[in-house]
Protein 1
Amino acid sequence: MVELEGDRIPWAVRARRLAVRAALLGLLAALVALALARMEYRWDWARAWSYRERFAIGLWTTLWLSAGSMLVGLTLGVGGCLLRLSRFDPLRFLGLLYVELVRGTPLLVQLLIAYYCVAPQIGIDRPPLVGMATLGLFAGAYVTEILRAGIESVERGQSEAALALGLSRWQTLRFVIAPQALRRVIPPLAGQFVSLVKDSSLLSIIAVAELTKVAELFAASSLKVFEAYLPLAALYLAITFPLSRLSAWLERRGAEQRR
């Protein structure tokens, strides 16, 4: 049995691991600082600080667009999962077609098609709305497969026992299979949300004023690329790192519950 990190590990061992990680991070930070110090570049952090309100607005835009896109993705993912698990061949094929089309084409191409081809035809001229819908459509294909895999990972004998006890197929899915599958799919769903936050940076190409677009505007107006993109990277890391740790913690908890 593989011992999980943090599971019955002596405090001394954990402290030693933390010390090693802190030393490695310190060494990395020192190397980066040395490399930046040796560059012949005139830093102007005061000018970047004057852009702080726009960066804050871009951060908020990134957060609510990502959250909204994940809600759309969860909704489409549940529907797509039901289609993929359907016994009716046309519905099952429809779910498969959705997953393969979306996952088989780049998100950038989907954004361009949605913004320049689809949105004008249906009278939508709000880039954030188009971006949220496209991101949600993209995430929904991955959520579909995450949910399907979680449901199919539950032992077949449990559904057979529930059906033998008189439960319908829908009741079996709702009361027996889904609660167990939910514990298994939460970690990959959290990981998908992390990916979605990073994918939201592509919305800058359709003029959505999220973090990346703000950084691009600042770099273009000030010609200070490092002061524009280093804070951008730090802000994305500030969003995704806690989510990544949450995903890892949920994965450990799920593994403990399955023992």
Protein 2
Amino acid sequence: MLITFEGIDGAGKSTQITRLVNHIMSQGVDVLSLREPGGTEAAEKIRTILLDNSHKISPIGELLLFSASRAELVQDVIKPALREGRTVILDRFFDSTTAYQGYGRGIDLELLQSIISFSTCGLIPDITFYLAIEPEEALKRKFAKSSIPLKFEGDELDRMERSGIDFYRNVQKGYQEIMRLNPERFVSINALESITVIHHHITKILRERLPS
């Protein structure tokens, strides 16, 4: 089983993934938690390049770096784990590429989908949880800032986070369109609810949709 989490940074994905992993393990299920980009030695090095705010990377270069990282993760880790019957929980997958590089950076969606299909070998999650939050609120939560509108600048932000508020608004619109096109796979959850309430929603939905 492949479970993915999507949403803008600051939505609370990492917290919910940790809780879900602990919950599934308590049921005696073998679970593997991974993140994108990352998960292999090569992919982690690509992650460092992508997030380093001293680098200037073109949208196409960014797309290809994310895709290279994903190809390594899928081939070397995810597919073998799924073949072994393990449950894989992934912090971001190809929906992030569609939202960020497609709707955010403006890369042609047809070209993007072709590259995604190639890098994933057609692998599709069984269920995807989207933690919904406004971009301004996400960044304010992440860095505990109270001023609005926020300035997307400063050394504390990585290269992606410094892309600007309009970029993140476009990413948010992208996610909304992706969910509209994939209603059978996506579950949208209000990220402003409490950590416990969100976790309850997630485990309840998994019991209903994937009882095994």
